[in-house]
Design brief:
By secondary structure, this protein is mainly α. It has helices spanning 18-22, 27-33, 35-47, 56-64, 69-89, 93-116, 131-135.
Length: 140
């Protein structure tokens, strides 16, 4: 088996489960199994205008559900767990996550300011907690 090396200007592909879910029509089953992947698959189908295969029931429930503080805390807890699971499966991703942590924080700060309609200055310029504490706030 001959393996070719990508040219230096092309990024190496990062294997994910996302592509598998995006190609399936059974996003309703995915909703309970992995919310983030369900969300990505639904977004992809909506962007392609593939309305027939969208999980309408869960999408409408998601859009109609009130966004209380408890909802967002549950979302954050779910995403933290998914990240920790991915890191358990692929420990070498931890170095990559450390490399992009501050850039991701900057993006999140911009998004939070836009969504909350608060000035960017209302949010700290730099992360207030180390990555390990963000991923597992009970660890400190």
């Amino acid at each position: 088996m001959t393996m070719t090396r990508p040219s230096d200007h092309q990024p190496l592909p990062v294997p994910t489960m996302h592509s598998q879910l995006r190609e399936t029509d059974d996003t309703a089953a995915a909703y309970d199994a992995d919310y983030y992947l369900w969300l990505q698959a639904t977004r992809s189908k909506l962007a392609r205008r593939d309305f027939a295969s969208v999980d309408h029931m869960h999408l409408l429930a998601h859009l109609l559900a009130p966004r209380s503080g408890n909802h967002w805390r549950a979302e954050v807890a779910s995403f933290r767990k998914q990240i920790r699971d991915e890191l358990d499966d692929s420990p070498s991703l931890r170095a990559y996550l450390n490399d992009i942590y501050e850039a991701c924080y900057t993006d999140a700060r911009d998004i939070a300011a836009a969504r909350s309609q608060q000035p960017l200055s209302a949010f700290p310029e730099r992360p207030q907690r180390p990555l390990e504490q963000v991923l597992n706030p009970l660890s400190s």
